[in-house]
Input
Amino acid sequence: MNATLWIILIVIVLLALWIIAMYNGLIRGKNRTDEAWSDINVQLKRRYDLIPNLVETVKGYAVHEKTTLENVINARNRAMSVTDGASGAKGEAENMLSGALKSVFALAEAYPDLKANQNFLELQRELTDTEDKIMASRRFYNGNVRDFNTSLQVFPTNVINGLLKFKAYEFFQIAEDEKAPVQVKF
Output
């Protein structure tokens, strides 16, 4: 074989290795982002499991606050029913649930006996811990989304993605109405 053929062969092999490396990098980014979304779901499941206990504890003290408690249960059920993965609908439902939970904790301020109840305090601590973990999971997920989406858009990976058709992920964002403090009126 002559030198030109060897050079062409080496260029083809290097190009194939480069394409394989780009593809593997995209797969790693996609899998990390999927894992981060799964971590959010684990924490959301924990939250869903704690909410009924919290509502039952509050019910005994705040009988006339039925609407607030029903809103929490409805928001929980709505959030659990959204199953289309990492989408804006899931984020919106979770944000509504977070707002409803804030109103339950605000109720405790109006009921000193509830505020001192050990079950309520433990559930509140557990939910606060879970909310912190959800927030950390959201940050981790959004960091992975940022990295993956950036890798899809930068040269030369965007050329490879043009052939492979990877889809960008949506960020898990806070809703506008969740940014405002909860108002509880009696």
In short: The chain has six helices and no strands. The domain at 31-178 is CATH 1.20.1440.20 (de novo design (two linked rop proteins)).
